[in-house]
Amino acid sequence: MQTTEQSKTLAKNYNAVKENIKKACEQAGRSQEEVTLLAVSKTKPVDMLMDVYHAGARDFGENKVQELVDKIPQLPSDIRWHLIGHLQRNKVKYIVDKVYLIHSVDSLRLAEEISREAVKKQVEVNILIEVNVAQEESKFGTTTEETEKLVRDISFLPGVHIKGLMTIAPFVEDPEENRIYFRKLRQLAVDIGNKNIDNVSMSILSMGMTGDYTVAVQEGSAIVRVGTGIFGERDYSKTI
Ligand SMILES: *Cc1c(COP(=O)(O)O)cnc(C)c1O
């Protein structure tokens, strides 16, 4: 009984977010296919992920390596797993051959470790560079000014491919306040893309969360990372 209620609610939420993305695409003259809805499932139990999977989701995002590694074998193998949280170098080896995209690379040292493990395991790893466009002290990410140099340095590493940029915008009441940061990230991607650096693509912008994803889509986002809007509030007091 309860599971049915839960799966209905989750499907309804998922479809509502999809619908909002569609509308934002229409407003911006974009095609809906250009935007991937990443279901951010951190702290949520496997049965809830399964419900969202049945609603149509195939891209799931986690921010902790341990949780990601625990969940992967319990869910269908056609899921694309994204690591969206801060990654420590000593954990790279656990996920490098399991993830579709790492959104949160912000240092050469981390990229070097990913490269080392990629070569060792003979896999090619796609990454995004996390940029702290809003210059918030509490956030990870490289600065706007340092991004191009970091991209160039990483571009030489074997087994690692930069596919674009990611940002976490500030927590705001009015999503319009974040439009400027989404624009900045997009402009930065355009500028770096114009340099035609070997082994570097700037085609993916990962930006927009529950509070601001429609604005992010209007500003060119390719991946929106939505947790609360699909799964509901997170309860960090419970360990899973
Ligand atoms: C948790 C998280 C999200 C999703 O946040 P919501 O506000 O719940 O949509 C998106 N991106 C990152 C990096 C996160 O850690």
TrEMBL record:
InterPro entries: Ala_racemase_N, PLP-binding_barrel, PyrdxlP_homeostasis
Superkingdom of source: Bacteria
Lineage, top ranks: Bacteria, Bacillati, Bacillota, Clostridia, Lachnospirales
Modified residues (N6-(pyridoxal phosphate)lysine): K42
Example of a GO MF term: pyridoxal phosphate binding
Protein family: Belongs to the pyridoxal phosphate-binding protein YggS/PROSC family.
A Pfam entry, by short name: Ala_racemase_N
Protein name: Pyridoxal phosphate homeostasis protein
Organism: Waltera intestinalis
UniProtKB keywords: Pyridoxal phosphate
